[in-house]
Write a structure and sequence with these properties.
The protein is of the alpha/beta class and about 200 residues long. It has helices at about 15-25, 40-55, 55-65, 75-85, 95-105, 130-140, 155-160, 175-180, 190-200, and strands at about 1-5, 85-95, 110-115, 120-125, 145-150, 165-170, 185. The chain is globular.
């Protein structure tokens, strides 16, 4: 059986932290895993900025509620789901993802959770597991699944490399240059073509 695993932010929906950065005017919050490959370093930096500026989970959720999936993402996802099973593997958090999952018709999502205190301050985060995207792909392969994985950031590379087939989607040129053996596309039609070839192979 064949299955597709996709990253979420930058692939199907806008980068949440970049959108929040624009809303708050705090430029440092625009850094993502495209910029900083160590997720712990990135998240601890973000948490420090939230604390410094007195920002709460609700402030972030208000921005998320105003966001929509990337143009064409819903139609693309519906088409893929008509062809095969799909799982979204993301380092985002349940507390962020729900409004966007609703707009994408509730695809299966594996992600993480935030630690939030009684006042609504984000004080930490709980990873589902370390390198969870790669381990999810490896687990799917261990039960006989043929996996295609696609994403756009440094933290997607281990899952892409662990899959039977992989591709970069909307990845920055630097990541494409560092991984010249991976197909790299920017349009949903092109990614759909890669998926269809995978399903027919």
């Amino acid at each position: 059986m064949k299955i597709v695993c996709l990253d979420l932010e930058g692939v199907l929906v806008p980068e949440i932290w970049i959108s929040f950065s624009r809303k708050t005017g705090i430029e440092e919050l625009s850094l993502t895993t495209r910029d900083i490959s160590d997720y712990d370093v990135l998240m601890n930096k973000r948490l420090g900025i939230l604390k410094e500026h007195g920002l709460y989970l609700q402030d972030i959720q208000d921005v998320i509620n105003s966001m929509d999936p990337l143009e064409g993402a819903g139609e693309f996802l519906d088409k893929v789901r008509s062809l095969t099973q799909i799982i979204i593997l993301s380092d985002t958090f349940e507390e962020f993802a729900k409004p966007l999952m609703r707009k994408l018709h509730w695809p299966t999502l594996f992600c993480n959770q935030l630690v939030v205190d009684a006042q609504g301050s984000v004080t930490g985060y709980q990873l589902r597991q370390r390198d969870g995207k790669r381990k999810a792909v490896e687990s799917l392969r261990s039960i006989g699944m043929d996996v295609l994985a696609a994403g756009d950031s440094y933290n997607d590379l281990t899952m892409i490399r662990a899959a039977d087939h992989g591709a970069l989607f909307k990845a920055p040129q630097s990541i494409c240059n560092e991984n010249p053996d991976l197909p790299a596309v920017d349009r949903y039609d092109d990614l759909l073509e890669i998926i269809e070839e995978f399903l027919q192979g």
